[in-house]
Amino acid sequence: MKKLLHILILFAFNAQAQLHKMPADTEFFYTYGGVNFDEARDIKETPDKGYIVIGTTSSFGQGNTSVYMIKTDALGNHIWSSVQGGTQNDWAYTVQLTPDSGFFVAGYSNSFNVGNHLYSSAYYFKTDKNGNLIWQKNVDKGNWSFIYGSCALPDSGFILCGQTLATPDENSDAYLIRVNKNGDTLWTNHYGGLQDEIFNSVCVINNKIYATGSNATHPPDTTSDGWIVKLDLNGNQLQENFVSFGGHITEKLNGITPYNNTQLTVCGSVYYPDSNATLGIIAKFDTSLTNTIYLNKIGFITKNYLVTFNKVINIGYGNVCIIGYALGGYGGTNMFFIGFDANGSALNSYDYLWNSGGQLNDYGYSGILSTSGKLIGVGSTQGFSGMPANYCTNPNLGLEDFFLVRFDSDSISKTVLSQQPSSLPKTYCFADTLFLWHASIKNYVNNFNAKLFPNPVSNYTQLEITCNNQKNFNAIVYSILGNEVRSEKILSNTPKIIDVSNLAEGNYFIKIQDENGQNVSILKFIISR
User: Fold this and answer.
1) Assigned domain for 510 exists
2) What rounded mean pLDDT belongs to the chain?
3) How many CA atoms lie within 13 A of 434 on its CB side?
4) What is the number of domains present in the chain?
5) Containing domain of residue 491, as a range?
6) Which end of the chain is less enclosed by CB atoms within 10 A, N or C?
7) Per the domain annotation, does 509 fall within a domain?
8) Terminal-to-terminal C-alpha distance of the chain
9) Residue 417 belongs to what H/E stretch?
């Protein structure tokens, strides 16, 4: 019977000795979200030793999907939430801290392509330390362009990486953007050939940019190779290297992390179409990219086998940790961690299993080693519905939620490996109510006022909006769980009767948007009969 990817991560010079000295009990699982889809993509430690977690939500915000930010303390307790974006689809993949304790978030959006919402283009913004929007930018409008990774620069600016279809042949090019601390674009460059290329992750070492992804132009066949590119700070390509195991298979690199000032580590996956198997890849290069120190693939080429490596985390003493997801564990796809030594060998042996999550699907996308030695991973989970009592059964958490798991050190001992779901640490479930918040409400209309009478309501209530000029508004009624149950068009300075006779008793909210889809106000009302 095939074995799945198994894990031990050690934090010492002598791995075996430290295994007994530093057992890594799981401190907690935490989920955050609402009744629909919520997916965490990146995490950073904040100056107060808490965490900022970013991703995408369809549970909150004014669009189909919105950027979702959650700030927690060091124990995972919720401090605040924020949503950003427009009225269409907004996605976030990467977050960086700014020198003034704010946050820089990047991804892509089609909310700001005025007159044409078909295209998603590069989108990034800055908030203050409380998640309040300071500025936002949407660049390369009218083209398909996506941001998947970022890196902070010494001048307080950022390098962004991704892919763009703004090409003559309509295949994608790998894509880099350099912006200053105010979000102004300094340069934008495309990289690649006649086929599809992409950058998934980027870092800076010794004032040189290193970006990694996949390149379909390089190999002689029609599949893609893993790809690493070295560039100067003006985006000029200096060197490249490829990761390939030959044949008609597909390699891609998802993560890149400086190992030290002269080496870097990358991770990703290799796909075998004949067996529908995906294996993990880890490799180390010197910074010239001319010397491959090691290249390993982890897994078994058997039918439907799945292991994907997404992020490299340095854990000290020459060791690194990979976070990703694989089939196995307690069911479905599970978030996992695996440690490697300086030679690319799995620490101890991957004959030992550790997976995080429930009986459905859980995905690991990013992680950090905190300043206090805590190993933290984030992703998304579907895995808690119907689980034992110590798992999440909150009806206010829905299709998929942010997932954060933290260990009490950067070691994982065999004592953890034998635990069953019923004996795992408690999962704390935070059911957000962000759609009720006024944090995203801005008064775009001069002398605006909205009132609802009567309140409480029996079957009918009257909504009246007053402002200087006559304007059109949308009034959207939500249940306490955030489900849209009714919408009305309303003209300002003209009373509008709202019929709620078909709604059950309880608490409801009316979100008022202007004709551009911007949130203007939220009113709370009660139906009581």
Assistant:
1) yes
2) 82
3) 32
4) 1
5) 449-527
6) N
7) yes
8) 62
9) helix 414-417
**pLDDT-derived band of residue 403, with 50, 70 and 90 as boundaries?**
confident
Considering only CA atoms, which of 95, 126, 88, 125 is closest in space to residue 109?
Answer: 88
Specify if 376 maps to a domain.
no
In a domain, 375, yes or no: no
437 has pLDDT over 50: no
Task: Tell whether omega for the bond before 219 is within 30 degrees of 0, i.e. cis.
Answer: no
- 359 confidence band (pLDDT: 50, 70, 90): low
Nearest to residue 7, comparing CAs of 336, 326, 269? 336
In angstroms, rounded to a whole number, what is the distance separating the alpha carbons of residues 341 and 284? 11
Distance CA 419, CA 329 (A): 11
Q: Report the SS3 class of residue 421.
A: helix
Question: Could you tell me which of 492, 460, 478 has the C-alpha nearest to residue 523?
Answer: 478
The pLDDT value given to residue 439: 40
pTM: 0.79
Q: pLDDT category, 78, cuts 50, 70, 90?
A: very high
Residue type, 126: K
CATH number of the domain residue 489 falls in:
2.60.40.10
* DSSP label at residue 476: E
Contacts of 158 (CB under 8 A, 6+ apart): 96, 104, 106, 124, 150, 151, 152, 178, 179
Question: Which of 180-184, 219-223, 319-323 has the highest mean predicted lDDT (pLDDT)?
Answer: 180-184
% of the chain surpassing 90 pLDDT: 47
Q: Report which of 461, 434, 435, 437 is spatially closest to residue 450, judged by C-alpha positions.
A: 461
**Residue 262 class from Cβ within 10 Å (0-12 exposed, 13-18 middle, 19+ buried)?**
exposed
Q: Are 38 and 396 in contact (CB under 8 A)?
A: no
User: Residue 38: is its pLDDT beyond 50?
Assistant: yes
Residue 419 has pLDDT above 50, yes or no: no
In the prediction, which pLDDT does 484 show? 84
User: CA dist 188 to 93, 140, 176, 185, 423, Å?
Assistant: 19, 10, 6, 7, 51
Cβ proximity of 219 and 197 under 8 Å? no
